[in-house]
Amino acid sequence: MWFTLIVSSLFVLASFMMAIKTPEALPSALAGGSFFGLCAAVALNDIVKKRRRRLILDGLQSVEVNGQTTLGVTFWRTDILGASLLIVGLLGVWGGGQINPLFPWLSVLIALSGLAAIVFARTNSALPLSLQFEPQGLRVRHRDSQYRIDWDGMAVSGWNVSGQDFLVIDTPFVDRVIASVSFDREQTNARQTKKLLERFQRSQANFGGILMINPPRFGTDAVYLSQAIQHCIDKPEARSRLVPLVDGA
């Protein structure tokens, strides 16, 4: 990643100098400079994340949860990423043709992926909106439902998709999870419960667990969150320090 960071930064600098010396080349300079600027930002972010993870894995930092701990979803990371991709894509469509005839088409895909990321994050009901650490287990809230996965029997593992780290949570006691389900509507819908069970089964078949979590959505890192969850799994005495919210008890 250091190589990517250095090379991308050099291309950004070259684009900046070209825009100054040749004003008529401004569209292509912005197209190329924004693209490589995004590459440099991604590389820098990856370097910082790996350093933070190394500190945890080397034992220099420990992760614990105490008291009333709830992680709510944050959209600003997805919004920044989506907006960045959208801007880079639009600049590429505007000036990328001077670089390569295929550049504008690639830029269209980049712009669409940015827009899709924003829309998907805000509209997908399968994605959890909050994670609440309770003495009995991890309470997961969606837009229309909530349920609890007990610490006993819980397993957490990692899953990498296109360089993005996810956590996969599984339990042999799916029946307990289903029994804990409550819906926002006053009357529990048997059809909704069945759909949720089918979602769990599909997730187990595809990813090896009933729930997949994208930690950056909650403003944290995969290593930090997995260490916090594993801490509660391995140390039952630590669970007593967790305080449930009134509406989640």
Provide a short characterization of the protein structure.
Helices cover 54% and strands 15% of the residues. It has eight helices and eight strands, in the order H-H-E-H-H-E-E-E-E-E-H-E-H-E-H-H. The model has no long low-confidence stretch (mean pLDDT 85).
What features would you describe in this structure?
The chain has 249 residues and is α+β, with helices and mostly antiparallel strands. 54% of the residues lie in helices and 15% in strands. It is built from 8 helices and 8 strands. The chain has helices spanning 2-21, 26-57, 76-95, 103-123, 174-179, 190-207, 222-234, 236-239; strands spanning 69-72, 130-133, 137-141, 145-150, 155-161, 164-170, 182-183, 211-213. The strands form 2 sheets. A 5-stranded antiparallel β-sheet has the order 1-2-3-4-7. Strands 5-6-8 form a 3-stranded antiparallel β-sheet. β3 (137-141) and β4 (145-150) form a beta hairpin. The model has no long low-confidence stretch (mean pLDDT 85).
